[in-house]
Amino acid sequence: QVQLVESGGGLVQAGASLRLSCAASGRTFSSYPMGWFRQAPGKEREFVGAIKWSGGVTTYADSVKGRFTISKDNAKNTVYLQMNTLKPEDTAVYYCAADAVQFRSDISRIAGSYAYWGQGTQVTVSS
Q1: The dihedral formed by the CA atoms of 106, 2, 67 and 48, expressed in degrees to the nearest 10
Q2: pLDDT digits (tens, 9 = 90+) for 45-97
Q3: Which residues in 27-51 are b (16+ Cβ under 10 Å) and which e?
Q4: Which helix (H) or strand (E) is 97 found in, with range?
Q5: 7: which residues sit within 8 A by CB, 6+ positions away?
Q6: Does an H or E element contain 35, and which?
Q7: What are residue 101's phi and psi, to 5 degrees?
Q8: Cβ pair 4, 121 in contact under 8 A
């Protein structure tokens, strides 16, 4: 059984930074791509970014590119989402997710590609 636990959310002012963490347990963390998604009230869940299983390649949604950075610490079984220059429109529940495919050669932006999800952590950015 795979478990993902997010932490690090909170209430901040526009322009501030936050770092979200996602601790994984239950399988070989280093072999799977990891993704971050978010869902704002009344909106569908959307892709934020993802990192290849090897940790060397990342991809981001246009709305966060240049402001958010994903990293992966395989020794700690943890993936991070560093969020800088936060905007009110970044307000959402943020979820980390683990891909279903081991050693996937690409990085998926599709929620359906991810087999395991955390419970989410709330990020609220005030203007």
Answers
A1: 60
A2: 999 999 999 888 999 999 999 999 999 998 899 999 999 999 999 999 999 99
A3: eebbebbbbbbbeeeeeebebbbbb
A4: strand 92-99
A5: 20, 21, 22, 23, 121
A6: strand 34-39
A7: -110, 125
A8: no
